Amino acid sequence: MDYFNAFWVGGLICALVQILLDKTKLMPGRVMVLLVCTGSILGAIGIYQPLIDFAGAGAAVPLLGFGNTLWKGLKEAIDTDGVIGLFTGGFTACAAGVSAALIFSYLASWFFKPKMKE
Predict the structure, then answer these.
(1) What is the per-residue burial (b if ≥16 Cβ within 10 Å, else e) of 51-85?
(2) Taking a C-beta distance cutoff of 8 angstroms, is the pair 89, 77 a contact?
(3) What is the pLDDT of residues 37-70, one digit of tens each?
């Protein structure tokens, strides 16, 4: 049942975002920023963590989950380090994910020989 819940929740999030992209004139970069900010807000008001507990990776992997991760990192850092946690918490919480994305995309560029668009 965990796989099913992850599949339909993640699929619903992706479908809603695709509808947003198709029905508005928002550029993909702005939609991505909107998703991260929305995930942070939903995490701050306590709505997103129960969704992650229910759907697992279906809710944690999309950009909404990234925003929630940033919020959790900020909250932990502020609780332990005070005001300086505003500047360090987000980096600490997402460092592994961002590092993995950079490393794997760099490795992929070795295999697939990317070309500049003209």
Answers:
(1) bbeebbbbbbbbbbbbbbbbbbbbeebeeeeeeeb
(2) yes
(3) 999 999 999 999 999 999 999 998 888 999 999 9
pTM for the full predicted model: 0.79
pLDDT at residue 94 greater than cutoff 90: no
How many residues can be counted in the chain?
118
Where does residue 37 rank: exposed (0-12), middle (13-18), buried (19+ CB within 10 A)?
middle
